[in-house]
Amino acid sequence: MNSRMISLSAAAAVVGSIAFAGAAVARDQIRIVGSSTVYPFTTAVAEQFGKSGGGKTPVVESTGTGGGFKLFCAGVGVGHPDVSNASRAIKKGEFEDCQKNGVKDVVEIKVGIDGLVLAQSKAGPSLTLTRKQVFQAMAEMVPDKDGNLVANPYKNWSDIDAGLPNIKIEVLGPPPTSGTRDSFHELYLEKGAEGFDSLKSLKKSDAKAFDKVWKSIRKDGAYVEAGENDNVIVQKLEANKNAVGIFGFSFLEENISKLKGAKVEGVEPDYDSISSGKFKGARPLFVYVKKQHVGVIPGLDKFVAEYVSDKAISKDGYLARKGLVAMPKEEAAKVAEAAKSMKTLSADLVN
């Protein structure tokens, strides 16, 4: 590259930053996108931030984790979100998209723990499931008695195990863009698939073929994509006592008068079982912050400070009252310190 091209590039960068700074004056509200699971927690922080005088109450949109990262990583400037909620960690491909589009400084903040539950109407028959049984109910292809993969033949839960209710398998869950869907695959379906000797052997001999098995959900109507809004799933469970819904523990706790959680591996989903790790559907929740917007979008640093404050994420904090399971004190203190310093995520820490 010659010196003239270098000077033109430098000039363009300066013009871009000036344009960003000038345009930012027109946007005096923080914009947040992402996970439907993290949405109620971030909304609570946003409301507290607005009440405390930190700035205008941020705008929070529920777009799903994958959809949120797509918007977040599209670029830097007032036309792009400042924060993305996520019910899973950012993927390597998403992080690379961020870098490619100029979003160079991404701050990852773990805000707490959630339990991914299988919920039912209190009026319906109770389910106690293993992850192997969940895999059998949901996978597109399952092993037969000889270990050969066949199209999923199970119509009722009792077809899987005579001890389960003789009711139709109907599971309402999120679409592929949702972090909750990703977590369901990894926490339930992958672990369930590993319960079969034939699939364990397949994992060793052909990892890609094994991944295809546990990542493929049946398409015959037993699994119903109910969108990114978990409240819609709650409403449908109220209307159908035999259906099962997949969402975060906070939505179960919020609707505990109407819903119950299925036991998984004999453990009921509750605050203590999720916090201790006894409940096998536990997962971390995150927010991702665009460091390049700090100091440009008013109040972004103060919003982050509010999110990791003791009054928000401690066991007695206001997010726990909304169903967020708090991290251990030592971990929460480290998270708060990293958030305060706006420590950015490096490529080697992204899978």
Tally the helices: 15
- Domain module count: 2
Percent strand equals: 15-25%
Give start-end ranges of low-pLDDT stretches. Answer: 1-19
Quaternary structure type:
single chain
Biggest sheet, in brief? 9 strands, mixed
CATH-defined architecture of the largest domain: 3-Layer(aba) Sandwich
Number of strands: 13
The CATH class assignment of the largest domain is: Alpha Beta
- The secondary-structure element order is HEHEHEHEEHEEHEHHHEHEHEEHEHHH
Structure description:
This protein has helices at residues 3-24, 39-51, 65-72, 92-100, 131-138, 157-160, 179-193, 197-205, 207-215, 230-239, 249-254, 271-276, 300-307, 310-313, 329-340; strands at 31-34, 59-60, 83-86, 106-121, 128-129, 141-143, 149-151, 171-173, 223-225, 244-248, 259-261, 263-264, 282-290. By secondary structure, the protein is an alpha/beta fold. It folds into two domains: 3-112 and 284-349, 3-Layer(aba) Sandwich (D-Maltodextrin-Binding Protein, domain 2); 115-282, D-Maltodextrin-Binding Protein, domain 2 (3-Layer(aba) Sandwich), CATH 3.40.190.10. Strands 1, 2, 3, 4, 8, 9, 10, 11 and 13 form a nine-stranded mixed sheet that branches. It has a two-stranded parallel sheet with strand order 5-12. It has a two-stranded antiparallel sheet with strand order 6-7. The radius of gyration is 22 Å and the shape is globular. The protein starts with a helix and ends in an 11-residue tail after the last helix. 42% of the residues are buried. Mean pLDDT is 91; it is low at 1-19.
